[in-house]
């Protein structure tokens, strides 16, 4: 009874303190939003302009044989299939002047002797020249030309093989050369049209499982985690040695103070998280039953509690404040990352996958995805409840031993 | 002996001597963390496999050849299962995509009807789908053009009456060997108006100096907490009785820390050059030194604004995070710079990554330092 009274006293105390530090609280509220917003703007900046104006690439044909001009026109024509890239053929001087005026992202060229070397089986090099002020786009072009040349290398190996076998039979040289040109065209078309191999279908079962919905939920989850850390950080109060002794005399334990701090942080962060979730609901309608919202809320609560317990254990165990701050930040990052909020867990390495079911953020995020995005009508809290109990016990144990041994 | 030495040491060294363990720790932390993060990310990338399902509807030589080659691809973790199971798992987002080698694959390839011989299913959350499609189609395509070559040769032999010499396996093997042994078609990549050829990893997922800048900013902010510790209300009065003023003490410490951190920076560069793919250049060293000066001045001035130690730490952390984000260490800035080029001036990290010098920051911070000196090195500059 006394213990609960003590706890309530500290809850009130920390609450007051939180309100007193209103500017710091406001900043900590805005900080993660700004950071995530900034990241989103950067990603958008990287993706969106590419759609409106394609990456412009110039192809310089210095060889000027039948084969190379055929390849050139073929590449010019097939590029519009890909809305991100536009290829134009022109002279090297022109390409360089366009590079200087920053119009194009890269150019690549077929050097003199390109065709002859291809037929001879000599190694041929296609130089790609990137625009130093557009490194990302240059890189995309580089990858593209590389993959194209890998494909052409297959075609070339086959033409050379045909040539080799053709030499074995008594075929007139002229006829053979004509046949090779024909094969060259044939194989090039064959190569560049490789996308026709596939019959593609997209499976959509639930509308709300689109990447947009996924990352809205993930973003909210990340915000919640950072707010929890922020509120916990700001709610505490460093007591000096004398005060600690006095408190101990009044029967106040570290456990009571820590738990009070967890409750305050929980209240603050969850309040903001609920408001944010309501805001998100205005944009995308999840349309769930009341029961699903309750399930979702329960998982959120358990996750938040477990997360704060983790933060509090670090707080109790590490006495250097700098180390503590660094460790708590790393803990937060790992917990968010393991939930799949940054990269979906499907794409994690196999060697990490088997660990995931033991991580509470993965468990809770998974359930949240199932409830909110996949419209699943079932929930199992066993793991989360057990984890919370264990977490509480660890926190209690570490606070007790900390008090006893220091 | 120790005592005698101490009396002759300048006042600056008391704190350094008292806290040397923690200082050395924070000095070395950025190196250790950067190496750990880079190694971790490297191992992660190497180990990452995209789970896909492969449904093989026929048991022919060509189909099996394709399956074998897909199995040898490092990028893929292939599960064999029935189509219905695969589609169910795809819906549950337990697979990235599903590929079906259709019945009649070999026959279609051999008769040159190669449209839609493979079926591909993806969901709206198949983030790696495009990359997988690229891999699968180019492997299938290679297989197909080999068999196409074999049949072209068969036709030739037919025409010249030597069809008995024709051997499918021999031809495809030759073609494969030719492709593997001779580096037939290669590409080189250079930047316009730059001589040197770019290394293979011109755009790695994470940049070494990007990671390092985060940790070094955090530890520099932490190291500069002496500004706050020396001006605590309880001991502020001390400066009235010392032989040197806090202004001189502060500037001296700033100098000592700048020298100390620069030495560690040189060590860092040496380690990074040995471990990672970094070419040492004068430009890099200059850029690093100016970055160091910027961060130190910023930490110093920031620390003299704050009263509460803990809030200073938290702010330092937040500033470091903002700087690496705005500096393009997490996501490249190219897209946004095209619209608002001034953004590159906002973060000194951007200057470091572009191996340039953050002039605007250095000028602004120098003005700040002059103001601080002019105001007499008070706590609240």
How do the strands and helices of this protein lay out in sequence?
The complex is a heterodimer of chains A (406) and B (381).
Chain A: H1 2-20, H2 22-52, E1 55-61, H3 66-78, E2 85-89, H4 92-100, E3 106-110, H5 114-120, E4 124-130, H6 135-168, H7 173-192, E5 198-203, H8 211-235, H9 241-249, H10 254-283, H11 290-317, H12 321-338, H13 350-353, H14 360-373, H15 382-405
Parallel strand pairs in A: 1-2, 1-3
Antiparallel strand pairs in A: 3-4
Helix pairs in contact in A: 1-10, 2-8, 3-7, 6-7, 8-10, 8-11, 8-12, 8-14, 10-11, 11-12, 11-14, 11-15
Chain B: H1 2-8, H2 12-18, H3 20-47, E1 50-56, H4 61-71, E2 76-80, H5 83-91, E3 97-101, H6 105-110, E4 118-123, H7 129-159, H8 168-181, E5 185-191, H9 208-223, H10 226-230, H11 233-236, H12 246-275, H13 282-305, H14 309-326, H15 334-339, H16 348-353, H17 359-374
Parallel strand pairs in B: 1-2, 1-3
Antiparallel strand pairs in B: 3-4
Task: Put the structure in a nutshell.
The complex is a heterodimer of chains A (406) and B (381). Helices cover 70% and strands 7% of the residues of chain A.
Beta strands of chain B, count = 5
Strand order of the largest sheet of chain A: 2-1-3-4
Q: Which structural class best describes the helix and strand composition of chain B?
A: alpha/beta
Which residues of chain B sit in consecutive blocks of at least 5 with pLDDT less than 50? 1-8, 199-203
What is the number of beta strands of chain A?
Answer: 5
- Contiguous runs where pLDDT drops below 50 for at least 5 residues of chain A: none
Question: What is the general shape of chain A?
Answer: elongated
Main β-sheet, spatial strand arrangement of chain B = 2-1-3-4
Radius of gyration of chain B: 31 Å
- Quaternary arrangement of the chains shown? heterodimer
The tally of helices of chain B reads: 17
Largest sheet of chain A: 4 strands, mixed
Q: State Rg of chain A.
A: 32 Å
Q: How much strand of chain A?
A: 5-15%
What is the share of helical residues of chain A? over 70%
């Amino acid at each position: 009874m006394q213990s609960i009274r003590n706890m309530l006293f500290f809850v009130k105390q920390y609450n007051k303190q939180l309100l007193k530090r209103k500017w710091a609280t406001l900043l900590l509220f805005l900080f993660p939003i700004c950071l995530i917003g900034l990241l989103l703007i950067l990603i958008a900046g990287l993706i969106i302009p590419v759609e409106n104006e394609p990456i412009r690439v110039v192809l310089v044909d210095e060889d000027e044989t039948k084969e190379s001009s055929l390849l050139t026109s073929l590449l010019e024509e097939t590029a519009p299939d890909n809305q991100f890239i536009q290829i134009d053929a022109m002279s090297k001087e022109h390409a360089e002047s366009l590079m200087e005026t920053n119009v194009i992202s890269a150019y690549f060229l077929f050097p003199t002797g390109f065709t002859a070397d291809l037929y001879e089986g000599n190694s041929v090099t296609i130089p790609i020249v990137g625009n130093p002020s557009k490194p990302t786009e240059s890189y995309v072009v580089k990858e593209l030309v590389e993959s194209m040349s890998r494909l052409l290398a297959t075609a070339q190996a086959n033409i050379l093989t045909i040539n080799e076998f053709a030499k074995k039979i008594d075929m007139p040289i002229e006829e053979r050369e004509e046949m090779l040109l024909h094969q060259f065209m044939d194989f090039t078309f064959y190569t560049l049209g490789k996308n026709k191999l596939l019959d593609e279908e997209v499976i959509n079962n639930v509308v709300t499982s689109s990447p947009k919905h996924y990352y809205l939920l993930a973003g909210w989850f990340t915000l919640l985690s950072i707010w929890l850390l922020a509120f916990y950080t700001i709610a505490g109060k460093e007591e000096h040695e004398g005060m600690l002794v006095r408190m101990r005399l009044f029967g106040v334990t570290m456990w009571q103070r820590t738990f009070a701090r967890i409750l305050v942080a929980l209240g603050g962060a969850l309040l903001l998280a609920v408001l944010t979730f309501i805001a998100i609901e205005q944009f995308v309608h999840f349309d769930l039953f009341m029961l699903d919202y309750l399930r979702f809320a329960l998982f959120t609560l358990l996750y938040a509690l477990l997360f704060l317990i983790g933060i509090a254990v670090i707080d109790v165990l590490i006495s250097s404040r700098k180390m503590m701050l660094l460790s708590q930040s790393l803990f937060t990052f790992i917990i968010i990352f393991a939930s799949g909020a940054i990269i979906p867990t499907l794409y994690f390495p196999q060697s990490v996958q088997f660990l995931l079911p033991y991580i509470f953020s993965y468990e809770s995020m998974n359930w949240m995805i199932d409830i909110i995005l996949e419209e699943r009508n079932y929930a199992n809290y066993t793991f989360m409840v057990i984890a919370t109990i264990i977490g509480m016990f660890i926190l209690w144990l570490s606070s007790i031993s900390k008090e006893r041994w220091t | 002996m120790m005592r005698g030495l101490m009396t002759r040491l300048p006042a600056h060294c008391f704190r350094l001597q008292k806290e040397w363990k923690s200082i050395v720790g924070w000095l070395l932390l950025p190196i250790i963390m950067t190496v750990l993060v880079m190694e971790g990310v490297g191992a992660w990338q190497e180990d990452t496999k995209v789970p896909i399902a492969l449904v093989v509807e026929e048991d022919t030589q060509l189909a099996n050849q394709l399956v074998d080659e897909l199995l040898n691809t490092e990028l893929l973790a292939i599960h064999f299962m029935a189509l219905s199971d695969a589609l169910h798992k795809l819906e549950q987002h337990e697979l990235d995509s599903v590929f079906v080698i259709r019945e009649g694959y070999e026959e279609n390839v051999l008769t040159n009807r190669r449209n839609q011989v493979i079926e591909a299913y993806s969901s709206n959350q198949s983030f790696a789908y495009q990359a997988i499609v690229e891999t699968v189609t180019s492997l299938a395509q290679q297989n197909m053009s080999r068999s196409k070559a074999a049949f072209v040769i068969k036709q030739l032999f037919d025409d010249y009456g030597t069809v008995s010499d024709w051997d499918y396996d021999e031809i495809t093997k030759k073609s494969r060997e030719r492709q593997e042994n001779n580096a037939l078609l290669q590409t080189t990549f250079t930047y316009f108006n730059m001589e040197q050829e770019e290394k293979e990893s011109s755009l790695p997922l994470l940049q070494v100096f990007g990671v390092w800048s985060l940790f070094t900013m955090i530890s520099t902010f932490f190291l500069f907490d002496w500004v706050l510790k020396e001006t605590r209300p309880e001991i502020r009065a001390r400066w009235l009785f010392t032989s040197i003023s806090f202004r001189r003490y502060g500037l001296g410490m700033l100098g000592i820390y700048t020298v100390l951190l620069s030495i560690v920076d040189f060590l860092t560069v040496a380690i990074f050059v040995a471990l990672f793919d970094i070419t040492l250049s004068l430009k890099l060293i200059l850029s690093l030194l100016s970055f160091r000066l910027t961060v130190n001045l910023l930490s110093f001035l920031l620390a003299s604004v704050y009263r509460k130690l803990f809030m200073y730490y938290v702010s330092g952390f937040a500033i470091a995070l903002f700087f690496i984000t705005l500096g393009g260490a997490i996501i490249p800035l190219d897209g946004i710079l095209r619209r608002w080029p001034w953004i590159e001036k906002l973060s000194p990290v951007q200057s470091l990554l572009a191996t340039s010098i953050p002039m605007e920051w250095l000028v602004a911070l120098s003005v700040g330092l002059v103001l601080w000196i002019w105001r007499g090195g008070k706590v609240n500059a």
